[in-house]
Structures are given as structure tokens and as C-alpha cells.
């Protein structure tokens, strides 16, 4: 038995044991790298805070849209935002935790408060304006700025990777706004 490693079942071939233990040893430094290693610059800290709030606002508002919106296209857009922004939020949470930031992001209470009591067409209009179009316009600028001027390489890479998705959301939101204005 290997001291310090997990007990291996007797049916594991010895070569497999060596591979498993080698991999465990190789990845041990990576798990230690998950601890806060370096302080983020103010630019990167602000990005994490703003991106977290934008994502939390998008998720909360889109969940409201599933029950408050009257338009099928608005509900479909909201469902897509929930799926995509949940993935993005998970990625940002991992990066934040690497730097010791463990508090969950909080949605913009002004935006959510302005939507909570609306129903039907009123909700649709406000959601499209404030969240779909307005929120994504701000998010595109936020992620573009981090991808260009951020100091943390992992955050910069995450922003660069997310930017085309958020830009596409913004384009979808603009199309949705035009379609609803025409009807």
C-alpha cells in the first residue's frame, strides 16, 4: 500500500495503481493553487464585482420573465439567458474563489424591484429594455474592457472567451426589441 495515497482495491492491476497515484501526485499542486495566491488589481476586482452583479441580475430577471412575461419570444429569450448565464456565473465563481472571493454576487435590486410587480406586456417591455438590451450593452463593454486591460491572465482569458457569447446575446436582444416594437 502507498502511504499518503488512497487505498487501492486489490483488483487494480499494479500498472493502473502506478498511473492513478502518479496522476494524483501530479495534480496535487493544482489543488493547492486554488488558494488565494495573489491579490487582484483594482481593475480585476471591479470586473469580478460588476460581472457578478450583472450575471445575478440577468439570472434573477430572466427567472421572473418565465412567469411574468406574456410573450413567448420573451420567455424563450429568458430561458436561453438562464442557461448561458448560469454557465458563465459558474466560471466566474471558480475564478473568484481562486482569489479568496467567496461571497455570492447580488442582483441589482433597483432593476429587479422595477420588474417584480409588472406582468404581461408591461413586464415584456421593461425586461427587454432594462435587462435584455440595456444589461447586455453594459456587459459587452464590461467584458471588452477586461479582455483588453485586465491584469489577471485567467480573468482576461475568461472575459475574452465570454465576449462573443455576450455580444451575441446583445444582438439577439436588439432583434427581440425590434420585433416587439413592430408588433
TrEMBL record:
Key words of the record: Signal
InterPro entries referenced in this protein's UniProt entry, alphabetically: DUF4142 (IPR025419), Ferritin-like (IPR012347)
Record carries keyword Cell inner membrane: no
Stretch forming the signal peptide: 1-33
Organism superkingdom: Bacteria
Residue ranges annotated for the DUF4142 domain, each copy included: 44-176
Keyword DNA-binding among UniProt keywords: no
This protein's name: Membrane protein
Organism: Caballeronia zhejiangensis
Amino acid at each position: 500500500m502507498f502511504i499518503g495515497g488512497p487505498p487501492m482495491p486489490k483488483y487494480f492491476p499494479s500498472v493502473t495503481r502506478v498511473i492513478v497515484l502518479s496522476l494524483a501526485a501530479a495534480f496535487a499542486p493544482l489543488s493547492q493553487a486554488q488558494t488565494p495566491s495573489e491579490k487582484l488589481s483594482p481593475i480585476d476586482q471591479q470586473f469580478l464585482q460588476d460581472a457578478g452583479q450583472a450575471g445575478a441580475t440577468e439570472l434573477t430577471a430572466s427567472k421572473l420573465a418565465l412567469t411574468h412575461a406574456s410573450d413567448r419570444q420573451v420567455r424563450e429569450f429568458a430561458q436561453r439567458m438562464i442557461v448561458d448565464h448560469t454557465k458563465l456565473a459558474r466560471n466566474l465563481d471558480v475564478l473568484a474563489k481562486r482569489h479568496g472571493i467567496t461571497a455570492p454576487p447580488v442582483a441589482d435590486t433597483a432593476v429587479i424591484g422595477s420588474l417584480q410587480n409588472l406582468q404581461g406586456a408591461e413586464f415584456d417591455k421593461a425586461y427587454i429594455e432594462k435587462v435584455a438590451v440595456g444589461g447586455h450593452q453594459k456587459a459587452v463593454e464590461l467584458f471588452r474592457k477586461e479582455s483588453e486591460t485586465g491584469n489577471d491572465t485567467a480573468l482576461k482569458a475568461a472575459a475574452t472567451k465570454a465576449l462573443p457569447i455576450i455580444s451575441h446575446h446583445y444582438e439577439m436582444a436588439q432583434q427581440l426589441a425590434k420585433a416587439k416594437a413592430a408588433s
